[in-house]
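can u pls check wat happens w/ dinuclear copper ion
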Amino acid sequence: MGDQGSSWLPDAMSSVAGEVDALFNFVLITSTILFAAVVISTVYLVIRFRRRSDEYVPEPVRESKLLEAVWIILPTVLTMIIFTWGFKVFVTLNTPPPDSYDITVRGKQWFWEFEYAEGVTVANDLYVPVGRPIKLLMSSDDVLHSFFVPEFRIKHDVIPNRYTSVWFEATEVGDYRIYCTEYCGQQHSSMIGTVRVVTQEEFDDWLDQQNQDLPPVELGARLVTQYNCQICHATDGNRIVGPPVNGLFESTREFDDGTTGVADDNYIRESIVTPGAKVVAGYPNAMPATFGSLSTRQIDGLVAYLKSLE
Ligand code: CUA
């Protein structure tokens, strides 16, 4: 991660961030001034015109055309400025430039999946070239998620059965955090990704590399890191949420329905694709069935990697 910006706002790292901040600061400053003016005059008037004795009868209030005009015109002008300015920024945020590079985003319990037009699919690490508008076409495979990159000032719901989209143009090379900002279940807080902004050359190299065929065990190891499997499954024999995955292959498993079975290739595959089919005794049936959508090659890689863990 780069530095964390000020304690006020995170660094502004996209082409639209400056406009968003300017509008935010304008609204904040004008509201603060108005708030102070209202509170100070209230306190002053309460003290100044308090009832001093039981016999005191105040003068009748007389209208002031000037005062009335001021409190009608001033807020009207202010709200129209905010509306016009806000509408302009809204349109900018919702209109990706025509030459933008499209990436498909899928929110899943509990990771982000990014698919590039070149046929590359990765999880949680969104590589993008610097200085180029990127349009994200987003949907969810299960429940509501929300895609938020504070440094870019973009945030949008990711919804099942519907596409939503956001766009951004990163202005500087660096790593920026992606948060899920819609409570989406047990591991919501760990649904964190990273936008890795690199130069166009580095980006092209990265895409080439992704297309190269990795040996299955290495591909599996990479997927385990990308999909955050280690959050629930330890490789050192410890219990976390789910059972540890080392020493799995050819071990005898006890299931919660009292049956037992040997962990062969088919058992490992089934436990990835339909995790609820056989639940290890003493553990909750907590794993989402999202991994059924992985490609055959990815599943082969995961099985090969899991078999290699001792
Ligand atoms: Cu996905 Cu919270």
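The longest helix spans residues 17-48.
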